[in-house]
Each structure stands twice: as C-alpha cells, then as structure tokens.
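Table S2 (text version). Query chain:
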Amino acid sequence: MNIFEFVKLAFFAITRNKMRAFLTMLGIIIGVGSVIAMIGIGEGSKKAQTAIIQAMGTNMLTINATQRRGFGPAASGTVERLRTEDALSIVEECPDTVVAASPYIQANSPVVFKNNNAMPMIYGANQDFELIRGWKIEQGRFFDEHEIIAQAKVCILGQTTVENLFTDGESPIGQVIRIRRALFEVIGVMEKKGSAGFGDPDDAIIAPYTTVMRKINGNDRLSSIVVSSVDGKSDLAEDEITAFLRQRMRVMPRDETPFSIRKQDDLIKMREESAGVITKFLALGASISLIVGGIGISNIMLVSVTERTREIGVRRALGATQKSIMGQFLTEAVVISIVGGIVGLILALGAIIILRTYVNLPATAESWAMTLGLGFSGVVGVVAGFLPALKAAKLDVIDALRYE
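Corresponding structure-token output:
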C-alpha cells in the first residue's frame, strides 16, 4: 500500500469515531494554538517596543548626569549638573559627528481645555528637538529661539492630546490650554506616530525648555541633553561627547565619568533581547500542551490497536506485511496530529486577530511560528504513534484472528 491509501484509511478510522478523534486532537489543538499565539504576542511586543524606541528619534543619544564618586572629598557623593550651554557647546565641539543637540526636560501635569482634562507627557526642549526626535509638524509651526529666550508660553500637541482635549473637533491652533497655573497657546500639532500597543508617543506636549523649567517645574534643573549624531557615527559621537564633557566638568582621569550616555541602538538591542527571552519562555510553556497532546494520541492509538486486533489479524492473513501494518497505524497517528495542528493554527490566527482588533495587543502572525507549530505537531504524531504502530505490527497472526 502507498501513502495515499494509508491516509485514506486514517481518515476513515477518524470519521468512524468522531468524538474520540476530536478529544484526541484537543491536546494538539491547544498546544499548537498556544505556541503560535504566544510567539505572536512575544514577537509583536518586541516589534512594538522597537517601533516606540525608533520613534523617539534616529541616531539619538541621551546624556544624563549621574552621581560622581571620586577619590577627593569634593567628588564623593556629588552630582555634576548638566548645563543648558552644554547642548550648544556639544554641537560646536563635535561638528563632524553631531548634527543637533537640545536641553531635555520631562514633566507630568494635568492639562485642561474648557471641561476636558488630559495627562500627557510634557517635554521641554529647544528648536532642534523636532529634528532630533524625528517628529514632524502637521499643522502650525514649531517654536523658535526667540520664544525660548523669552520663556514664551507656547506649545505643540500630539494627536492623542488633541483628541483628548478638543473633543468638539475644533482646530487647536491658536487655542489656549492650562498647564498647572500657566496658560499656553497652541501653535502646532504633530503628525500621528501611532502607539503600537505600548505607550503612546502621540500623547505629548512640547514646549520651550526654559518655559518648562520655570513655569511648570519651578526650577532651573536640566534633566538631560538629547543629541542627534551623524548617520553611522553614534559610537564616535559618544566618545567625543564624553571627552568634551569630562574636560568641561574637570574630571580627573582616575575619576568615574559623572554622566551616562545612552544610545538608541543600545536600547533597541536590550529591549529585543529581553523580549526574545520572554517569547522563548512563553513558547516553552505553551509547548508543554503539545507533549500532553502527544501522550493522549499515544494512549488512544494503543486502545485502537487493542480494539482492532482482529482486523489486524485478517489483514495479515490476507498478505499484509508488518511494515504495512506499522505504516497504517503510524500514518493514522500523524494525520490526527497534523489535523489537530491545522485546527490549532486556525484558532491561533483568529485569536491574534481578536487581540489586535479588540484588545489593542500588538500580536503578529509569524510565518516561522506557524511552520514550527505544524512541524512540531507532525513530529509529535510520529513519536506518539511509533509504539502503538510497532505493537500492531508485531501481533501474532493466529492470536490476532482468535481475539474476541
């Protein structure tokens, strides 16, 4: 008998006892569906986090002040403060590796327009922030250097902030919103970037850093400096900035660097590695269901061999070889497993669509995960069906014919 005859016999055996076949497949269905869905959630989360980080700006470096620990009493336990002048100096001192730099301040505060409230992230920066973060203006304009010097109360809104505050559909340009006790004029609206399921870069307000420091935070402290490097020169820019700031802060060669520089590429790699580990654990946990499903198939196939002992004896008496008997039962186990895998695949795709559409979870249907799930289900079928098939093939013909 060829493989097609084996498959035909397998489907005949499955349809002869539909409920038992379905219950046998259930473990494989759950296992394959879980593996594909879990990998889809993990990979989707990784891509979403990467997209959010990339949306923060291409070739961006963030400089943060850290506690300085040195050998002298003046160094121990102190914190070197970054200065607003450092941003301009970095561009002047590193013209071959740095495109733009900006003081950078973050703040959280309720924002009010008429009867509507929102809690967006508030960023304080200079006129180069638009270039550094890669954000584009859809309506209006960006603030200029004169407004920064004058501590002008002007701002640019993200699309989500616009939707939360201007629910009547009116244009936000020229409107006045309240941040804490200060009134800010809206002069621009950013293009929509998309939340990608984690965080929302569109739920933001950008204002001159001088205004955010004085009017919102009430101090002159600078959180950090953001820098945009020349394409392909982020590592060289990091080295030059480190050398310049250490010299400006008069850090001794033996002392630790009192600031840290974080590159976007490093952050992307770190997030991808952590998300990859999570994905592997999710897939490993889900694959346990496949093992349980394989045990179920093996158990049912052993029962099937016992029930069909007389049938096996008749086939052997009519000339069927041990190899033919073994191929029949092994094919049946594989068909049960693969059919269950296909059903699990369909259910997983449906679950991914539901998660993306209604739960806003960034799950993706990965082709390699689907191939892995189906391939693994086939392997489980072979392994689970081997012992029952071997038992069927080794049955004594006379004993099998006498079996009642």
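Notes on Table S2: The CA atoms of residues 31 and 289 lie 4 Å apart. Residues 70-79 have pLDDT under 50 and may be disordered.
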